[in-house]
Amino acid sequence: MPERKEILAESVRKLVSLNLADEEIIENLKDVGISEAEAKMLIVEAKTGAKKEPKTGLAGADTPITAEKAPIGAEFSLFFPFLQGRSSPAWPNASAAWLGLYGSNNSGTLWRSMMESIAFEYLSWVNILRSVGINLKKVVGTGGGSKGRLWNQIKADILNAPYVTLERTEGAVLGNALLAAYGVGDIKNLKETVNKWVETKNTFNPIRKNTDAYMKIYNKREEILNGPLLEIFNKIAELHEIKLP
Description:
Helix content: 40-55%
Mean pLDDT: 85
Low-confidence stretches: 50-63
CATH architecture of the largest domain: 2-Layer Sandwich
Distance between the termini: 31 Å
CATH superfamily of the largest domain: ATPase, nucleotide binding domain
Strand content: 5-15%
Largest sheet: 3 strands, mixed
Number of strands: 5
Strand order of the largest sheet: 3-4-5
Radius of gyration: 21 Å
Order of helices and strands: HHHEEHEHEHHEH
Shape: globular
């Protein structure tokens, strides 16, 4: 199996060959847990080092860049991201699963299906708000999950609402600093300060044809999830009660 550094280096070489800006490459690498310093070093090595033949198979599976080439709906491969159960609604017996995989699927399909699955979970919560008359004007994303352009567009399409990212992405740290400053008297008006500190970076608007397609997938996904898959989750949970030698 290829070493982590070798996989990363190959992925960065591919990105550099596509003439992507360094900043865009760095942001994509951050999405998979690579520090900015390491990302810059990999870019320099890719630009100055000897060229290597691109690898086949899953050598690029360490990066979600391949997801951009996968079609909307990820070829109808459905991922259910319940690695620690499902929190809302509370399904402690739920577990992660892929359905609908075929030999034609690749790492891009898997990456995209994971991104879409989380957005579908968000939609299930948003639908609860809409059902009680709360109109969703926009969604503001913070933290690492707001840094990927592809994922942001997927969330906008699935939620059918503008998805807004901020110049300062770390909301928790910013909030703590704001409250601390207010507590010691350095800030007099919280609302005014928040409006000054929180600046919009990008807005991803839903694409109608994508939203329409996603709604058809979502409805079928919900039918599978709340019917046979829920029963399967409970059966799998029973397996954990078996005492093995």
